[in-house]
Amino acid sequence: MKTTAFAAAAITAALALAGCHANDLDDTSGGQGGLGETHRGGALSILSSQTQMDWDPAKSQSLAITSLGLVERRLTTWKIEPGAEPQVVPDMAQDTGKASDGGKTWTFRLKDGLKFEDGTAIRAADVKYGIERSFAPELSGGLSYHKALLAGGKDYSGPYKGKELASIETPDDATLVFHLSSAYGDFPWIASMPAFSAVPKAKDDPQKYADKPVATGPYRVKSNASGSSSVLERNPEWSADTDEVRTAGPDSITFQLGQDPTVAAQSIVADSGDAANSFTADFVPAAQLAQVQQNSAAKSRLVTSGDGALAYLAMNVESKGLDNPTVRKAFEYAVDKNAFRVAAGGEIAGDFASTLITPGIPGRQDYNDYQAPESGDVDKAKALLKDSGQSLGTLTMLTKNDSTSVSQAEAIQQGLQRAGIKVKIKAEDSDSLAADATTGKPDYDLYLGSWQPDFPSANGNIQPLFDSSQIGGGNYNISRYSNKEVDGLIAQATEEVDQSKAQELWAKADRRIMQDAPVVPLIYTKNSFLHGSNVENFAIGSFPAYPNYLKASLKG
Amino acid sequence: MSRALGYLRFAAGRLGGALAVLLVIAAASFAIFYLLPNNPAQLSCGKPCTPDRLVEVQSYMGLDRPWFAQLGAFLWGIVAGRTFGDGATAIHCAAPCFGYSFRLHTDVTSLLAERLPVTLSIALGALLLWTVVGVGAGVIAALRRGRAADRLLMGASVLGVSAPAYLVGLLFILLFGFTLNVLPIGGYVPLSESPGGWAFHLIMPWTVLAIINGAIYTRLTRGSLIEVMGMDFIRTARSIGLKESAVVTRHGLRNLVVPIATLVALDFGSLLGGTVITEKVFAIQGVGGLLLDAVNALDLQIIVGVTLFAALAVVLANFAVDLLYGALDPRIGAPS
Amino acid sequence: MTAPEPVLDVRGLSVRFGAHPVTHDVDLRVREASVLALVGESGSGKSVTALSLVGLAGGSAHAAGSAVLADGTQLVGAPPEVLRAVRGLRIGMVFQEPMGACDPMYRVGRLIAEALSAHGERVSREAARARVLTALRAAGLADPERIARSFPHELSGGQLQRAMIALATIHDPELLIADEPTTALDVTVQAEILDLLRSIARERAVLLITHDMGVVADVADDVAVMREGRIVEAAPVEQLFAHPQHAYTRTLLASVPRLTGLGEGAEAQPEARVRARSEERAKDGPAAPHAPDGAAASNAQGGARASTRPPQPAGAHAQGAQGAPRAEQRGEDSPAARLHEAVVVHGGRGGTRALDGVSLEVPRGTVVGLVGESGSGKSTIANVLVGQQALTSGWAEVAGTRVRPGNGREQRRVRARIGTVFQDPAGSLNPRRTVGAQLAQPLRTHTDLGHGAIRQRVAALLDEVRLPAGTGERMPHELSGGQKQRVSIARALALDPDLLIADEPTSALDVSVQAGVLELLRELHDERAFASLFISHDLAVIEQIAAHVVVLRGGAVVESGGAEQVLRRPTSDYTRELISAAPVADPIAQARRREAARAH
């Protein structure tokens, strides 16, 4: 897995906070803002702290509903609307894929009349080529779930050395057949990832494609100046008739790059000039969040997500003392979740968590195996510790070294102290933290972080954090949790093609894991964004905790 | 030995020293980077990243070789250019090759060439502004020594010296960008595109840098001018009946040219290394922004390339100062 | 010479800085075509008087009284624009230290041209150039083109002072104020500049400010003696020297160190000197309780001095380049300092030879005087001995140990055996530490004395240099120049050195103070019998203290031998030239010597 995304997930908890009572809105379906008629026209600006836009689908980790989704269509995409569960829907494909061979083979047929921005027809081979090039080390860095799934993907290193990937077949110009190494029920979600875009081989220059991709979506890249801006204009060859999710309201969309989040938020609060036609791609910083509470005009333009990433305390089940499940259960009671949330910014920072699958993910079942007041149940924790007969030394807790993370860590530290558990905090910058937690020797006992799945399936909540294959090697099973039964459930759920059956299995895995208590779920974090007064259809669904760029438009 | 020959030998000696400094800086930035526990390949590996994939990316980026071999290849690339990868996707980076960013798919030399005009715009304008204002204020303070104007300027310069750029920048944005709404809050317009827009967008960064750095010039100018005005040759200049204004400019200020020019050259050198904070606050992507991004993304090639470039700028500035001395102060010839 | 109207008529001029009065009721009359010398020691107010005439005494200076030029122009209280018009045009000025008085950034020709155009006169470039060259030539510079092209640092002090005189007289002013114009110059150069001033004074009035009675005797027509802001005596020069009326004038005349037997005024010496010393002692700080004036006085008698000096070893003389000094048998017997064939070349091969094969020896217990003009290599020798200058060839040793640059233990130990006293006492003392702390420092570094012992030693040192016990707690800036130099001497002697190097120790001091410091050195030498290398450009000073004299020129030894022999019966022309260039504080004798030199 990738450290930046990981870091971003950690920052989610850090930034989407600030001690203030923002929206009293408390619907668990999550999301805010509504969708209405889309007016066509106008120039929309998106203010981003990123300094360059990389439009190469092979290297992208972009969500289906954000930047790259405006330019490149994939086989499938996401239908994200407030108040509704996220849905995988056909994009370039006619459906979300037909499984055969028990979920090991997936077949997609392209819609008729799809064209690249230059007018040439999109063929199955273009999609196959697009996927193949994502295997090249030159273009590594994107979402890579498919690389392990596709048969032979492990040994394939891209088309530039003249080899094709045999597990993708294109029997005709409209048909794609994927052969997987093992059954995978969530493959329709995988087919929504950036690599499943179409790339014409004739126009591919791996060094330059990031600046000038051949567009298939409603917009094409007009200019891409690193450090200043990236401008999208309408792609005349795109047809709304074949696209059920993109509304393509604005005539142009400009990403203003390298914007300081504080300054960006401030300018949208002021709402003058171009700012009225803009929204922030970054979370609103804590100070501005507080400021907006005092400003009713700006407050109406603040959009806060529903419950998003899971903030959790991971326990290294291999370290001495914590290898005893009774001790870990004591932690479930000893932790002061309320103090943690206060440190994270209070109510607007998120709701208390008890499950591993996050709200908004289809099939989530709410439960709480460790019923306790929000500030914990110290007596019970002490009793459990006594039962275990274990004596704990001073435990090392890894966390990020920004002030919010450290104060959160201190809240945890003080909570555990009440039950007589001593904790030493080791705060590190995000890169060192990722390295120490996911690679090399596990020298930590506890780890404080957060996690948001890359696609709205419980698979994304469970498998990366709790599958025994995800221990070490840069992967995120930081608890180093290994349970054959859980591995079996994950394998079974992963291979299940029937989504409702799969969801049952994931929910079962969720509860089974929590019986072993490898982590303490703390809160489901929320993110806040600001938009200008002329921006509408700016909405956040129940998943992901980001606005849906594909729907945003300007008032007439 | 003739003066010119002496100069040449002196310059050659300095150049040799400068090259040694740069070599040490390159080696040090490599070494420091490799002491960090991070693996840059991890960032380019994708999500999820399998160990096999990581090894493949590492070897493509050349990170599997020992650090001194990488340093050697890097340094040789500056002299002779180098090629990354092989086959159809091989990338040739022509000399002087300051490295190649796999993240941005661009060679560092082009990135620098792209960002340098931006930083140069900030640096030159700010430098000009603060030199004129800083020196002017210093002259006024020195000539009105002990009076209200002097005390006011000195008080202000204490504020200037101690104010953090980030704070001043944000206050300016708040005041001129939002409250008064007369200046753009950030961004950069190339000079070639619109000279007016270029200057308009740079007024605030220039001013902020000038406030912070000009104060030092005010103090230096004041102190030095007071000292110079107490020298015997000033009395001589007055004894021939020269007007006081001519005494101050021709004899007072002329003797400040060397210390001020020294400071200007050195500041210019360090400004070229990037005005990181100012660039960040005003959303301008110059050399400093390039470096900041690279550090965040563990982009070794850019980090080393930009560090070397910044060091080169400082070294060249020092070199220029040494040569300037000879040109500006007749007493200082080439040391033989 | 008998013009009725003086060129400058100053009456009742009083200058104060703020509320602090500096001069009181000064009367001066500068006659046409004559030199009025305003004489006094530093702080007497002579420079302030002159500078206030043209409004250059400083922002806070306030003058009252009257100063009128021949045409009736009143200078006191005149608006700045009037004074500016007078400066350069009607009153020219020449200052001490020509190097400091020239803006180093400009060529000399450009500086003079600037003076030419300072009053709005429109002069073509060619005309200006011609006038600059003429003025330089008139100032006695043989190669005016080269001088005009040169930057100040490229010229010698004498050349530069001539150029400054050209600058000051470019507008042919009726009055030239020369403020210590020769003080910073070598003695032979001084003589030339004084000649020039004398010739200038044939056409205009000159107000010469000086502390040097020899200079006064050489060029002045009239003299005004100033003390503590008042004119104590004013008279034509012959009259003043022959019959000094005021006690202070007599003191001044008496404290001038002079080459005995050369100046004719030798007869009055012993008595005058004693008095001068007593007065200096009174001024410079209370006399040490155990050293009554009488003792010092008797010690200072010519005969007593000679007898108390240790006997001079037969071989103790500096040797020219002709041979190495004999090797001594034991370290104890080795001379305090020895140079053998010492060569110092600056700037690599073909560079300038600062020392060119110098061999000399400072025997234990002997004061060797090192005489020469600037650039002769005097200070280079001192630097070699203290390890600050490497020899290109040859060797040097102190108390039997070779000295070389570097900070090895041996070298540090050698250096602890050397005490040094420099010209500028202010520059060699740390302004931020008390005198006592500075005296204690070498003791703390080089001895294992305890706290109390060090304090006792510091007190003893202060007593030895005749400073009051309380001086230890004071800061250097609270002391007078003479007192500071006494502290320097105490510090130099703190470790009881084998060798004392004194580099122009009295040059920066006023004559009367100088006499006191010289006397102190002599007494200390008599008491403690250290060897000393005494460097000076002033033959008279050397004569007073040195048993042996070495004359240096261009890095080589010109002449050496016993003081008596070298100064009275010099064998080299150069030594003779040096002796004759030193002005004698007697206008008649000086005039005679001048005639003789000219005839020569």
UniProtKB/TrEMBL annotation, chain A:
One of its GO terms (molecular function) is peptide transmembrane transporter activity. Gene3D superfamilies: Dipeptide-binding Protein, Domain 3 (3.10.105.10), Periplasmic binding protein-like II (3.40.190.10). Keywords: Signal. GO terms for biological process: peptide transport. CDD domains: PBP2_clavulanate_OppA2. One of its GO terms (cellular component) is periplasmic space. It holds the Pfam family SBP_bac_5. The keyword Zinc does not apply. Residues 223-232 have a biased composition (Polar residues). This is ABC transporter substrate-binding protein. Residues 1-22 form the signal peptide. Residues 87-471 form the Solute-binding protein family domain. Residues 203-246 are annotated as: Disordered.
Automatic annotation (TrEMBL), chain B:
The chain crosses the membrane at residues 12-36, 120-143, 155-178, 198-217, 256-278, 298-321. InterPro entries: BPD_transp_1_N, MetI-like, MetI-like_sf. Keywords: Cell membrane, Membrane, Transmembrane, Transmembrane helix, Transport. CDD domains: TM_PBP2 (cd06261). Gene3D superfamilies: MetI-like (1.10.3720.10). GO terms for cellular component: plasma membrane. Pfam families: BPD_transp_1, BPD_transp_1_N. PROSITE patterns: ABC_TM1 (PS50928). It is a multi-pass membrane protein. It is found in: Cell membrane. Residues 116-325 form the ABC transmembrane type-1 domain. One of its GO terms (biological process) is transmembrane transport. It comes from the Bacteria. Its main location: membrane. Belongs to the binding-protein-dependent transport system permease family. This is ABC transporter permease subunit.
TrEMBL record, chain C:
Residues 285-306, 314-326 have a biased composition (Low complexity). Its main location: membrane. GO terms for biological process: peptide transport. It is found in: Cell membrane. Residues 263-335 are annotated as: Disordered. One of its GO terms (molecular function) is ATP binding. It is a peripheral membrane protein. Residues 270-284 have a biased composition (Basic and acidic residues). Residues 8-253, 337-579 form the ABC transporter domain. GO terms for cellular component: plasma membrane. Keywords: ATP-binding, Cell membrane, Membrane, Nucleotide-binding, Transport. PANTHER family: DIPEPTIDE TRANSPORT ATP-BINDING PROTEIN DPPD, OLIGOPEPTIDE TRANSPORT ATP-BINDING PROTEIN APPD. Belongs to the ABC transporter superfamily. This is ATP-binding cassette domain-containing protein.
